[in-house]
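User: I've been trying to design a sequence by hand for this structure and keep getting stuck. Would you show me what you'd pick, starting by listing the structure so we're on the same page?

Assistant: Good idea, let's start from the same input. This is the structure you sent:
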């Protein structure tokens, strides 16, 4: 147990000494995960709401496909994105492979089904009579959908929390697409794996503590927003 205590002690020393590389990795991780989550929310919430409201052929298979995407293996997503972004791939002209932009793209793909599926589920819980009533008052389909979403803001925030939680802890996809390049694409998760494999347990513990702290801080902020107007019972 002594080496564990020593590892935590050295890890805390690294953190409180303001190690520049550790905090640069933390900033990149936070930026990538937040931007990918925001993009997935902007795309997934309206898409999920539209799917829930509209009637069209193959609606149930589409929802099943989205629900299946919630369990998409990150390494598979990373492999597909890497192939598309490679020089010989159809998106090679973007030159996003081994860049933060590529990592945001793959994290967006991972989070999109989660946020879309939760949005579908939330919108399907709306009373159809309420939606029709909004339409009869002169609202367009889009306006009615956003009025319903305003009523479902707690469920939408739950989707955001779920999406961010999945992304901030992701390893495989960002390692494949980003390459874990020092000072360029090294994330808290990928750096933790690398330092552990190298036997630098103090640095790995420091990275892990920073990751847990950032994850808790963001989720705590989102939870405060989610619970802000929940009436006490």
């Amino acid at each position: 147990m002594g080496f564990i205590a020593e590892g935590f002690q050295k890890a805390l020393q690294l953190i409180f000494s303001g190690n520049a590389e550790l905090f640069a990795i933390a900033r990149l991780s936070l930026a990538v995960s937040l931007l990918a989550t925001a993009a997935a929310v902007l795309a997934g919430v309206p898409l999920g709401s539209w799917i829930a409201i509209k009637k069209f052929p193959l609606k149930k298979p589409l929802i099943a496909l989205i629900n299946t995407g919630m369990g998409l293996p990150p390494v598979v997503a990373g492999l597909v994105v890497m192939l598309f972004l490679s020089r010989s791939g159809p998106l090679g002209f973007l030159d996003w492979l081994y860049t933060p932009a590529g990592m945001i793209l793959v994290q967006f793909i991972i989070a999109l089904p989660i946020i879309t599926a939760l949005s579908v589920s939330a919108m399907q819980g709306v009373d159809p009579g309420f939606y029709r009533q909004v339409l009869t008052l002169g609202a367009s389909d889009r306006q009615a959908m956003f009025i319903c979403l305003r009523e479902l803001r707690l469920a939408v925030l739950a989707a955001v929390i779920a999406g961010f939680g999945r992304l901030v802890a992701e390893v495989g996809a960002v390692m494949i697409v980003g390459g874990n390049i020092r000072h360029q694409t090294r994330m808290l998760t990928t750096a933790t794996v690398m330092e552990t494999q190298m036997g630098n347990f103090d640095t790995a513990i420091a990275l892990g503590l920073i990751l847990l702290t950032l994850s808790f801080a963001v989720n705590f902020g989102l939870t405060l927003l989610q619970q802000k107007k929940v009436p006490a019972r």
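That's my pick for every position. To get oriented when you compare it with your attempt: The CA atoms of residues 154 and 229 lie 9 Å apart. The chain has one domain: 21-227.
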